[in-house]
Amino acid sequence: MIVTRFAPSPSGRLHLGHAYSAAIGRAAGDSFRLRIEDLDQTRCKPEFVDGIFEDLRWLGIDWDEPVLVQSQRTAHYQAARDDLRARGLAYACFCTRADIAQSLTAPHGDAATSYPGTCRHLPDDPERRASTPHSWRLNSAAALELTGLPTWTEHDGRTFSAKAEDIGDAILARKDAPASYHLSCVVDDAESGVTMVVRGADLRPSTPIQRLLQQLLGLPEPAYLHHPLITHLDGRRLAKRDLAPTLAAMRDAGVDGPTLVRQLLAGEVPSGFRLQDA
Ligand code: GLU
Q1: Ligand 1 mean position, distance from CA 121 (Å)
Q2: Residue 185 near ligand 1, beta carbon < 6 Å
Q3: pTM for the whole thing?
Q4: How crowded is residue 159: how many other Cβ atoms within 10 Å of its Cβ?
């Protein structure tokens, strides 16, 4: 049985790219799960959670099993982080807040940020930790020694091997947020029994680090379907600042949701947009 998932962040209304991802996820899975990635409490808003349900209903996309809401699952992420820490695979890092804030959201299209390892060999200092904002980072050198470079398999059977430069000391958690995107993603994909991770090709750079975390935490290995992205005709990404039309606006303009899903699955995108090669 193929179990897929759609994992939007409620930091705005869904747009055409989300509809495409959800449509592919639903169509590729025998069972389809919905997860709300709302760990970034500064950007996520309850009304956008309602918007996700409303937009999926309009598209005619339903899901199996109760919705998994990340903000309700913090103890699970903490346990995973503690496990890594107890095994010498995570360390406290006192470097910049900007880095740390960024780690909560999926890094669409960005290359993995490299970290020079400044705090990697600091002796543990509980007092400093109690008084200073910090994050928890993966000790990737120690991790790779255990597992070697991770590999992953795409849905069509192609296998890939990570390169050393794909893997850095990724942030796992921070003092005031229990998990980064990478850590919460692998813990929750396993919790939901996801066998195929369906997401945009812009998130492919996240796959090596997530495969490494799965191995370290003893989690099952899913297959991956990194789908092409829908962009504006000139190649610009769909984003709020690029005035991407929201699904809510398309509905108000009279578009029929299920028809849109059928067209997207047939590779037809509305005029003004195109599918970029994955
Ligand atoms: N929450 C992420 C997003 O908004 C999805 C990450 C994933 O599918 O792994 O794009």
Answers
A1: 32
A2: yes
A3: 0.94
A4: 8
